[in-house]
Amino acid sequence: MFLGESGSGHSVVMDGAESQGGRNMGVRPMEMLLLGLGGCASFDVMSMLTKSRQQVTDCRTEIEAERVDAVPAVFSKIHLRFVVSGRKLKETQVKRAVELSAEKYCSASIMLNAAGVEMSHSYEVIDA
């Protein structure tokens, strides 16, 4: 089990499965990578929607990932699905925010794509 501390002073517990010598007391490091990706992309999407005066009440990012069956077991495919809820949301604004995050702003997504990970994105707009 490891305690990671960020430069901003926040901590997170990471651990492995018992079958790999861990105690299952925290997030797996590769899960942490996906959580960081989801957070990075979500911040981008929410920032752009807020700036375009969209009335967002919730934004959830669901991530599906595949890893290669070899060592190292790197990610080969990652799909981010944004579920954005709000009042009178413009689908064109949500679509554009997701595209800009993927293509221009999300450092994590762009870095993974440059490393050869097949990245894909989709979205759903829910009128709340």
TrEMBL record:
Listed Gene3D superfamilies: 2.20.25.10, 3.30.300.20
> What segment(s) does the record annotate as region Disordered?
1-23
Q: Kindly give the NCBIfam families that the UniProt entry links to this protein.
A: PRK10738.1
Q: What is this protein called?
A: OsmC/Ohr family protein
Organism (species): gamma proteobacterium HTCC2207
